[in-house]
Amino acid sequence: MKKITDLQGTFKLSNKVEMPYLGLGTYQADNEQEVVDAVKNALNLGYRHIDTASAYKNEEGVGKGIRESNVARKDVFLVSKLWNADQGYESTLQAFEETLERLGVEYLDLYLIHWPVVGKYKDTWRAMEKLYREKRIRAIGVSNFLQHHLEDLLEYAEIIPMVNQMEFHPYLVQQDLIDFCNVKGIQYESWSPFMQGKLFSLKNDIFRELTEKYKKSIAQIVLRYNLQKGIVAIPKSVHENRIKSNADIFDFELSKEDISYLDSLDKGERIGPDPDNFDF
Ligand SMILES: NC(=O)c1ccc[n+]([C@@H]2O[C@H](COP(=O)([O-])OP(=O)(O)OC[C@H]3O[C@@H](n4cnc5c(N)ncnc54)[C@H](OP(=O)(O)O)[C@@H]3O)[C@@H](O)[C@H]2O)c1
Question: Reduced to 3 states, what is the DSSP secondary structure of residue 254?
Fold first, then answer.
């Protein structure tokens, strides 16, 4: 098991870049004051990793939040994603510049291909490799790539993606894909660790038992479950109290049995689109 220490602890990517294993998600956080405050509060509370995307239409606010925080840009692990309509070699290079401009930064720590648009993602990857080689991005990766997408990309890629960001929670474990990524040295990262909030309304005895046993909330148990499985997590909240409590997970450890117990909830249930069947 990888060592989990504190909010600024990291997992080392295949290129030796350190990626903080807990970050702040910003999907559906408004570009106006909402995302500015969420990012600023998270950084001031000790978070060092912020996840955004061109598709979230809040990159300006994310950049503003970083500048308004007490944390220097160089100490933030900043992630954005290339949107589907921008896939292709030249359009990726162009979209990357626009993302930097909106964020008001000189470089990204991690840039991801948001979805595996078939027929496009190889040319896109060539552009990502170029930007990486030019040191415009510290690490490059993908999102929503199933094993067959990764196998196809790996046959072509000169640089193996460092990260794969996937929907992951106890109802959608995809352990085979996690194992495949681990073997290839691709860091697994979860999106929607709380099923966009749905997890909290599920009537589930396992959650009740674990919250009583560890005296922690469902959110905290689920995030700890991510980290102990070696998975980077980026829970989203725009509320300071939740941003704070989601990071209060470094004073307890789930037993191996309880991790297996949570794994056993897997139903293959998605909250988001299927990477093999999306139309955007
Ligand atoms: N690569 C992709 O395709 C992809 C897709 C989806 C998401 N993502 C990334 O992953 C991040 C996380 O996923 P997500 O935003 O979809 O969903 P999520 O993190 O699973 O859930 C967010 C929801 O949970 C609520 N929440 C957060 N902490 C809580 C707590 N302690 N108690 C109760 N409710 C709580 C939030 O409400 P409030 O904000 O009102 O507190 C929000 O409604 C995104 O923000 C985004 O950065 C990536």
Answer: coil
Q: Which residue has the tokens 């139903």?
A: 267
Give the strand pairing for 163-167 and 108-113: unpaired
Ligand 1 atom closest to the CA of 235, numbered from 1: 19
* 104-122 exposure pattern, b = at least 16 Cβ within 10 A, e = fewer: ebebbbbbbbbbbbeebbe
Strands (E), the chain: 10-12, 18-20, 24-25, 49-51, 77-82, 108-113, 137-143, 163-167, 187-191, 232-233
**Catalytic (active site) residue 107:** no
The residue contributing the CA closest to ligand 1 atom 14 is 192
Encode pLDDT of 251-272 as tens digits: 999 999 999 999 999 999 999 9
Task: Please name each of the domains of the chain with its CATH number.
Answer: 10-264 (3.20.20.100)
Instruction: Enter the pTM of the model.
Output: 0.98
Containing H/E element for 39? helix 33-45
CA–CA separation, 124 and 130 (whole Å): 10
Tens of pLDDT, residues 138-191: 999 999 999 999 999 999 999 999 999 999 999 999 999 999 999 999 999 999
